[in-house]
Write a structure and sequence with these properties.
It is a single chain. The chain is α/β, with parallel strands linked by helices. It has helices at residues 2-24, 61-76, 98-101, 106-111, 117-120, 140-147, 174-182, 184-193, 199-205, 215-230, 234-246, 252-265, 270-282; strands at residues 36-42, 45-50, 82-86, 91-93, 129-133, 136-138, 150-154, 158-160, 196-198, 210-212.
């Protein structure tokens, strides 16, 4: 009995610590990240902010582990219909963390499939992702933006694939996605010279859907569009994203046939019965 009384003070000290540790690992806790910030600023909208200000949001394995986790959480959340990814006013992401890359060997890069995790989650994300790009988006930062479904940017934003200046090439899809966005000749010029291009040019060339005069307007515009997307039928939004993405993978004939099958399938959804015909009849 004496031993029990002796252990009570220790228990009172340990239990609060265990409680804190449980909260730390709680799936609902979004404050435990070290390299990103997450929030839900508008109904149905998840916001992820890259948060390595001293490193200009340089992309590292640790950052992508957190980013992928946050993306999965929002994607699995039935109350989230669209996600916005952004950085700071100065940097969306300045590129890959050079300190992490400088000593890696070919054997290590090849055997570990280095940076494959950068696109492993985004490529299977079903919830629409909007990149709000302000400041620099260079190298891996440009590639990360290109992975998004929609890019909004400020006119003063700076995009580029400068890897050639470091004796390497884009490794996270830059040579493929940029070429699809602006064509072979322009993409070849940018990648072979390592030259940057502005947010205004990104919008003019079709890399970005829209450019804004300030970083504040850019983020607010992205959040507003995300909120609008989130207000629509989730099953229809997911289907629309899926069919548009399919156009990047197959020929026109196969793409049209795929679209038609998905279109037919939506006639079995409750959202289509509730939303479409009453809307047309009201008009």
């Amino acid at each position: 009995m004496a031993l029990v009384y002796a252990l009570r003070p220790m228990a009172y000290r340990v239990l609060p610590l265990l409680s804190q540790r449980c909260r730390f690992f709680s799936a609902s806790s979004r404050l435990s990240y070290e390299n990103i910030l997450t929030s839900s600023p508008k109904p149905g909208v998840g916001l992820i902010t890259l948060n390595r200000p001293r490193a200009w949001n340089a992309l590292s394995s640790a950052l992508f582990a957190e980013l992928n986790n946050a993306l999965r959480e929002f994607d699995q959340d039935k109350n989230t219909g669209a996600i916005v990814l952004t950085g700071s006013d100065k940097a969306f992401a300045a590129g890959a963390d050079i300190r992490e890359m400088k000593d890696i060997t070919f054997s290590e890069a090849y055997s570990t499939n280095f940076i494959s995790s950068w696109s492993s989650t985004i490529s299977i994300l079903r919830t629409p992702l909007i990149a709000a790009v302000n400041g620099v988006a260079l190298g891996g930062g440009c590639e990360l933006a290109l992975m998004a479904d929609i890019i909004y940017c400020s006119s003063a934003a700076t995009f580029g694939q400068p890897e050639i200046k470091l004796g390497i090439i884009p490794g996270a899809g830059g040579s493929q996605r940029l070429t699809r966005a602006i064509g072979k000749s322009k993409a070849m010029e940018l990648i072979l010279t390592g030259e940057n291009f502005s947010g205004t040019e990104a919008a003019e060339w079709g890399v970005a859907a829209r450019s804004f005069s300030s970083s504040e307007e850019c983020l607010e515009g992205a959040l507003k569009t995300a909120e609008k997307i989130a207000s629509f039928s989730r099953v229809a939004v997911v289907a629309a994203k899926e069919t548009v993405n399919k156009s990047q993978e197959v020929g026109l004939r196969d793409g049209v046939e795929y679209e038609r099958k998905v279109f037919h399938s939506l006639f079995g959804s409750k959202d289509q019965k509730i939303g479409t015909f009453p809307s047309f009849s009201n008009q």
